[in-house]
Design brief:
Elements lengths: L3 E4 L3 H13 L3 E7 L6 H5 L2 E6 L10 H11 L3 E3 L9 H9 L3 E2 L4 H8 L1 H10 L7 E2 L6 H11 L3 E5 L9 E3 L5 H16 L4 E5 L5 E9 L5 E8 L3 E2 L2 E2 L1 E4 L6 H17 L4 E9 L5 E7 L6 H8 L3 H9 L16 E8 L1 E2 L5 E2 L2 E2 L2 E3 L7 E5 L6 E2 L6 E9 L2 H13 L2 E3 L5 H9 L1 H4 L7 H4 L1 H4 L8 H24 L21 E8 L4 E8 L5 E4 L4 E8 L4 E6 L2 E9 L3 E6 L2 E7 L15 E3 L4 E6 L6 E2 L4 E7 L2 E6 L3 E7 L6 E2 L4 E9 L4
Length: about 675
């Protein structure tokens, strides 16, 4: 058995491999680029080696540096994960030449499946059904146009040398063929350095169904059933589930047998995925074979109870597959979605930056979360912006979807936009729940899945106001404890007035809208009564240190997540995030002074003015420093009467969120 393993990847897959390897007693080695020095995958391993600058071409795609790190660490094997060098035949050969085990298929198999045209010819010879099409050597316009006529329109042009939707065009009629071919060739040449095309029959409303296969070096090959990956956006998978819904037992058996035949035909060893395109009538055709572990492998693990990474390490060590085909059963149903840092409202524009708060679904029965980042990490511009994979396993499809929907509603992210709400809407969409699945689903139901932004509900606005009020109370209690007279009524934050009704006004902007003045008063029961303009709402609750608010709003008990960054609060309730920015003269400090008197940056920004110097004595509320962030100025003020111990940054300097801007010593917080 392999004793020391280097993981030539990053993110959630590297974390996953490390965890499984450790349970098997395998020592793990991470590699990392300059920006990943403190990444989750580095922390997951026993040892880590730097391999270069942030760009992948200078680090994670440098096979020579990875092999050098493996040799330096005394590793016996390299696991490439997926992406980067996982399907690079040259890297697999280099590992072998260096005396290292490549945890993957033979280089020849990777090479054979890397050419779509060559792979299709091989599959035809092996009796695996392929889509009617053309993948010949003659690439002249005349030949390609004639082949398109023979196949019958509509046809699909595909780059022979690559995937990911690049160099792909659907052509509806002959008049459009020449122009589409020119564009597809140009795109393929730019992406892959190769403009060769293949042509396939373009199926109407097809499904994308793939089969997980596994082979050992002793001639044993099995399949672990199929996954449906039909819900795609720009040819990229969004939702994956296993088993594929509404497959007959005959189709399932035939598809599994075809996948095994494909693996045998190429002399495969290890984990692989044979991808099929399936017509509405149930007929299916080979598309390609991915010679690596897939992102969506957790749904297969969920329904089979098997650990595919453990199998990879066993097979790479020369062991026989631990289970025969007859013993691989299906237990229930599993669905996976990919949580991305992206903005669905802006055409899914990738988001980069600091994860101020990241709360993923709790690990519980039927829920699995594979994450490659943690709260406080940065989503870099250099790599894929996936935050986590969320997987639900249930007794049937309806049960799995219900669990997944609840899990997605519990996600809390501050600092970046994500697709969490978009994914949750998919899991609840009647057509998807009803099994209406094909590759055009997302585009067909776009208006339902990406509705126009609605304003904040009165309930969520009330929750945010209550959180701000409770925060005021906590600040007042903290200041009172440090004062000369902790019981003075002047420390109260509820708008207390001598011989008058307690009343205060919150000035907030809700969800980026116009400023609103919301009156709040205490009644005889201790509840707040909030006047939101449309009527009064009674609110009470308790906010804990983890940012969980147990509240009663208008007589309804509920729980919400609260993130207070000093400038306002973000409310997480029932899968929705609502932002309330404070414009509050009583909230003098934009950072938390804490026990040690530290004034910290509420967000990344630039120091544009320093208004104090070390040793200066200042009064409560005195402006000390001005921070520019997101094109707005934020003034950091003195939280109490006190002395500036040190100013830690100069004008013009950039600072990260939570950077210690000023060390402050309270002298007298009391009133009399």
């Amino acid at each position: 058995m392999i004793r020391t393993l280097l993981i030539a990847n990053r993110g959630e897959i590297a974390v996953r491999i490390a965890r499984t390897a450790k349970t098997m007693g395998v020592r793990t080695i991470a590699v990392y680029s300059e920006v990943d020095a403190n990444a989750a995958h580095v922390a997951s391993c026993d040892e880590a080696h730097a391999i270069g600058p942030a760009p992948a071409v200078e680090s994670y795609l440098r096979g020579d540096r990875i092999i050098a790190a493996a040799k330096a660490a005394g590793a016996e094997a390299i696991h490439p994960g997926y992406g980067f060098l996982s399907e690079n035949a040259e890297f697999a050969r280099a590992c072998e030449a260096a005396g290292l085990i490549f945890v993957g298929p033979p280089a020849d198999a990777i090479e054979a499946m890397g050419s779509k045209a060559g792979a299709k010819a091989m599959m035809e010879a092996a009796g695996v059904p392929t889509v009617p099409g053309y993948h010949g050597a003659d690439q002249s316009l005349e030949t390609l146009a004639a082949e398109a006529e023979r196949i019958g329109y509509p046809v699909l042009l595909k780059a022979s040398a690559g995937g990911g939707g690049k160099g792909m065009r659907a052509v509806e009629k002959p008049d459009d063929f020449g122009r589409a071919l020119e564009g597809a060739c140009r795109e393929s040449q730019a992406a892959f350095g190769d403009d060769r095309m293949l042509i396939e029959k373009y199926l109407q409303r097809p499904r994308h169904v793939e089969v997980q296969v596994f082979a050992d070096s002793h001639g044993n090959v099995v399949h672990l059933h199929e996954r449906d990956c039909s819900l795609q956006r720009r040819h990229q998978k969004v939702v994956e589930e296993a088993p594929a819904p509404d497959l007959t037992s005959g189709t399932r058996r035939a598809m599994g047998e075809a996948a095994v035949a494909a693996a045998r035909a190429v002399g495969y060893v290890g984990a692989g995925t044979v991808e099929f395109i399936m017509d509405q009538d149930g007929s299916f055709y080979f598309m390609e074979m991915n010679t690596r572990l897939q992102v969506e492998h957790p749904v297969t693990e969920a329904i089979t109870g098997l650990d595919l990474v453990a199998w990879q390490l066993q097979v790479a060590s020369g062991e026989i597959l631990p289970v025969s085909q007859d013993n691989i059963k299906i237990d229930g149903h599993a669905v996976e979605v990919r949580l991305y840092a992206e903005d669905p409202a802006r055409d899914f524009l990738p988001q980069t930056g600091h994860l101020k708060r990241l709360r993923l679904p709790h690990r519980q029965a039927g829920i699995r979360v594979d994450a490659g980042v943690r709260s406080g990490d940065t989503v870099s511009v250099y790599y894929d912006p996936m935050i986590a994979k969320v997987v639900a396993h249930g007794r049937d499809r309806a049960d799995a979807l219900a669990k997944l929907s609840d899990a997605l509603d519990s996600i809390e992210v501050v600092g970046l936009s994500t697709n969490a709400a978009f994914l949750a809407r998919i899991t609840r969409h009647p057509a998807f729940v009803g099994g209406e699945i094909d590759t055009g689903f997302l585009e067909r139901h776009k208006s339902d899945l990406l509705p126009e932004a609605a304003g904040a509900s009165e309930t969520d606005t009330a929750i945010g106001c209550l959180a701000l009020l409770l925060g005021r109370e906590a600040d007042a209690r903290r200041k009172a404890r440090h004062s000369n007279d902790p019981h003075s009524p002047w420390h109260r934050s509820d708008g207390w007035r001598l011989n008058d009704t307690s009343r205060q006004v919150l000035r907030v902007s809700v969800a980026g809208g116009e400023d609103r003045d919301i009156a709040a008063r205490r009644d005889g029961t201790g509840e707040y009564v909030l006047d939101l303009g449309s009527g009064e709402i009674r609110a009470s609750g308790k906010l804990d240190r983890r940012g969980r608010l147990q509240a009663t709003i208008a007589g309804v008990r509920l729980e919400a997540g609260i993130h207070d960054d000093g400038l306002g609060v973000t409310v997480f309730h029932r899968g929705q995030a609502t932002r309330l920015d404070r414009h509050d003269p009583l909230a003098g400090v934009t950072g938390d002074t804490g026990e040690g008197g530290r004034l910290v940056a509420p967000m990344p920004g630039k120091i544009i003015r320093v208004l104090c110097e070390a040793g200066a004595e200042v009064a409560i509320g005195a402006p000390l420093l001005v921070l520019e962030a997101m094109k707005m100025e934020h003034t950091i003020t003195a939280p109490a009467n006190g002395r500036v111990v040190s100013v830690n940054f100069a004008e013009g300097e950039l600072v990260d969120e939570s950077a210690d801007l000023i060390d402050f010593e309270p002298l007298d917080s009391g009133g009399s």
